[in-house]
Design a protein that fits this description.
The structure holds two protein chains of two kinds. Chain A is mainly beta. Chain A has one helix at about 1-15, and strands at about 30-35, 35-45, 50-55, 60-65, 70-75, 80-85, 90-95, 100-110, 115-125, 130-135, 140-150, 150-155, 165, 190, 200-205, 210-220, 220-230, 240, 250, 265-270, 275-280, 285-290, 295-300, 305-310, 310-315, 320-325, 330-335, 340-345. Chain A has a single domain, classed as 7 Propeller (Methylamine Dehydrogenase, Chain H). In chain A, the strands form seven sheets. Chain A has a four-stranded antiparallel β-sheet, with no helix packed on it. Chain A has a four-stranded antiparallel β-sheet with strand order 4-5-6-7, with no helix packed on it. In chain A, strands 8-9-10-11 form a four-stranded antiparallel β-sheet, with no helix packed on it. The longest helix of chain A has 13 residues, at about 1-15. Chain B has two domains: about 35-200, Up-down Bundle (A middle domain of Talin 1); about 205-330, Four Helix Bundle (Hemerythrin (Met), subunit A). The two termini of chain B are about 30 Å apart. The chains are: A mainly beta, B mainly alpha. At the A-B interface, strand 19, strand 23, strand 27 and strand 28 of A face helix 4 and helix 9 of B.
Chain lengths: ~350, ~350
């Protein structure tokens, strides 16, 4: 076994690696379902599928290698595996499994030079959070760090190398994902040094049932999106902003739109001056300015994936449509038979 | 730490999307070519538009009453509320723009936001009650829920409610009339689903799916909110949390919303025998309930309401299983999926 693994690693390292530009410079990665089949697609800026690679089941999210045409696709939780896919050939180069007793928790991110992959993970029995580190030369496990919370979900690297972790706060059953601690859950947002040391951490007093789940770096600020686990009749914000060193700020929409998102933000993306969050449950996307002031709400059933693009934002929905989203409106870019899944990943 | 500023930006949102997509052109399309699928056409023409027209008429009649005597206003208030129950489940299009449905009916309200905002209006500057300004007040203070607190006050009001009653009724009539008017072009968009230039519904299936989704979420709202909130638990029933308890409508609202949803289901697909039977069973149980919601404090009364809740959930499951394949649509791929 050891020898086989070694040979596989050797083979992988010897195979010429193509860059994203070599395979048509896709603008986005998106997972989706067509009929009963699941696939990972590369999408052009115009929303057209440039390639698709069959996945063994419904994916959760993907992370793209910053240079090589290579992506890691995470299985749905409880995540027992992740696949490193060569997007030029469609070949699965590596099948990653977390160490015994651990599970992937949906997201991962590469270092800017692509040498490291970081994965959000939990100790299966307790949902205690870990950040797994992988050497991307052969996708060997290096170590793991505490995430400093329960149930980490999204992790993002900031431009300066620090790492933001959304510790969602929810303890889940290791087998069926039943939520086990809703009455006393306590999410937090943690900031780690490039070496994994805890630098800063904030939580949401009074809103502990608002699970912090997805992140979008925005200069020195981290925009974070939340999912409410409390009484659905309570109006709560789905967006928050945190500039480390200061208190987090919550950004509610106007009261008439307090329930437009149904308490649930599925994805978040941020440009220099705008933040967009989607809600498949509410069938809506909201745009805020950099200070967190609501600018617009656009309605469209089952909107979920969101990423930045040249025009502002690109969003995808479960009916197969890809949209350009601006302050003014949603404009359809492309529509296909593929039902786009939770997340849209911008490349480059 | 929390900032709750409502910026000026939010007061000048762009017009609703269907107002900008060349409605005139789409209207021509809808008329000049075959209308959309029969299911969509039946819902638009025989369910939604007549429902909104009746609601607008009832709200206008309520607003036309000169008296501020609650006794004189209550019958028209009840009629308006009845009319709203026929369309309240259509939470798409005009009703979702700018939170209009919330401003018409803000419930549940566990933090009593409506009562607090309304007290401020009652005791504040009467100039805030002008038609333009009332429309900018908290959605929690307005609409049917706001009127109910003024016409069926639980305790003495802190000031003469007459100006606020009139302003709230006028505001409600204005919103109802706008919804009725907007369902003209919005209905045309549904009917012209999949036609060139229709950015709202990119295919006929999308229009069908949007209406099918209203059926499922409407039944969930009846089971989880209208029934679920007062039901509480066997050990702790909460009739005090029931919808519109002050105006004695909790059971009436359950009955009317089930009838409205039954109508929607059978317009979507008249040939749905299992769904029809499930609705008829649930409606039979609802009609047999004691109209006094406080009776659920008794174990027998509580069990009857819980049996109804199960029947409503069974109706939802039956409708999804029967209508979904028949219409060729399913509920939202991501909306049904927690992440």
């Amino acid at each position: 076994m050891r020898r086989r693994a070694f040979l596989a690693t050797l083979a992988a390292s010897l195979t010429p690696r193509l860059s994203w530009a070599d395979i048509g410079a896709p603008a986005f990665l998106a997972a989706g379902k067509q009929g009963e089949d699941y696939a990972l697609h590369g999408l052009s800026g115009a929303g057209e599928s440039l390639f698709q690679i069959v996945l063994p089941g419904r994916g959760h999210a993907a992370a793209a290698h910053p240079i090589r045409a290579e992506a890691v696709a995470f299985a749905r939780r409880p995540g027992t595996f992740a696949l490193v896919i060569d997007c030029a050939t469609g070949i699965t180069r590596h099948r990653l499994a977390p160490p015994y007793g651990m599970q992937f928790n949906g997201h991962g991110t590469y270092s800017p030079d692509g040498s490291l992959l970081m994965t959000s993970e939990v100790v299966a029995e307790t949902s205690e959070g870990r950040i797994g580190l992988w050497d991307t030369r052969g996708y060997t496990r290096l170590t793991d760090w505490p995430s400093h919370g329960i149930g980490p979900h999204d992790i993002k690297r900031l431009p300066d190398g620090r790492i933001a972790v959304a510790n969602g706060g929810i303890r889940t059953d290791p087998v069926d994902r039943t939520k086990l601690n809703i009455p006393d859950m306590a999410p937090n947002l943690a900031l780690l040094s490039p070496e994994g040391a805890l630098l800063d951490q904030v939580d949401l007093p009074g809103l502990r049932q608002n699970s912090i789940r997805h992140l979008a770096p925005m200069g020195a600020t981290i925009a974070f999106a939340m999912q409410w686990e409390g009484d659905p009749a309570e109006p709560v914000p789905q967006l928050g902003l945190w500039t480390p060193g200061t208190a987090p700020r919550l950004c509610p929409p106007p009261d008439a739109e307090a329930f437009a998102m149904q308490g649930y933000a599925g994805s978040i993306a941020a440009t220099a001056d705008r933040i967009l969050i989607t809600s498949p449950k509410g069938g809506a996307a909201m745009i805020f300015d950099a200070r967190g002031t609501h600018v617009a709400t656009h309605h469209r059933a089952d909107l979920s994936g969101a990423a930045t693009s040249q025009a502002g934002f690109t969003v995808t929905d479960g009916q197969g449509a890809v949209w350009s989203a601006t302050d003014k409106d949603l404009t359809p870019l492309a529509s296909v038979k593929t039902q786009w899944d939770n997340h849209l990943v911008a490349l480059g | 730490m929390r900032h709750h500023t409502i910026s000026p930006v939010t007061r000048c949102l762009p017009p609703p999307a269907w107002g900008r997509t060349g409605v005139a052109g789409l209207l021509a399309l809808a008329i000049s070519s075959a209308p959309g699928l029969a299911d969509t056409a039946a819902v638009v023409q025989d369910h939604a538009r007549p429902g909104y027209a009746a609601f607008a008429l009832a709200a206008t009649r309520l607003a036309a009453i000169e008296s501020c005597d609650p006794e004189a206003l209550r019958p028209a208030f009840q009629a308006t509320y009845d009319a709203w129950m026929a369309v309240a489940h259509l939470a798409l299009g005009p009703a979702e723009e700018d939170g209009r449905a919330l401003a018409i009916h803000f419930w549940p309200d566990p933090k009593r936001l409506g009562a607090k905002a309304q007290t401020a209006l009652l005791t504040g500057d009467p100039a805030a009650l002008s038609p333009d300004l009332i429309a900018q007040q908290s959605v929690a203070a307005r609409g049917l829920s706001g009127l109910e607190r003024l016409l069926y006050p639980a305790e003495a009001l802190p000031a003469d409610p007459c100006p606020l009653i009139q302003a709230t009724a006028d505001d409600l009539a204005r919103m109802a009339t706008a919804l009725d008017a907007d369902w003209g072009p919005y209905g045309d968009l549904l009917l012209a689903a999949g036609q060139p230039g229709n950015d709202r519904f990119l295919s006929e299936d999308e229009a069908t799916q949007a209406l099918f989704t209203q059926l499922a979420t409407g039944l969930e709202a009846v089971a989880d909110r209208r029934i679920g909130r007062p039901l509480g638990s066997f050990d702790k029933p909460r009739p005090d949390l029931a919808e519109s308890r002050a105006s004695d409508r909790p059971v009436q609202n359950i009955r009317l919303s089930l009838r409205a949803l039954r109508d929607l289901a059978l317009r979507l697909n008249p040939d749905s025998p299992k769904t029809k039977a499930a609705f008829d069973r649930a409606i039979g149980l609802a009609d047999a309930l004691d109209p006094d919601i406080d009776r659920i404090a008794d174990p027998q009364g509580w069990l009857k309401l819980e049996i109804l809740q199960q029947a409503v959930r069974a109706t939802r499951d039956t409708a999804i299983a029967e209508l979904g394949p028949a219409l060729g649509v399913e509920l939202g791929f991501n909306a049904q999926d927690g992440d």
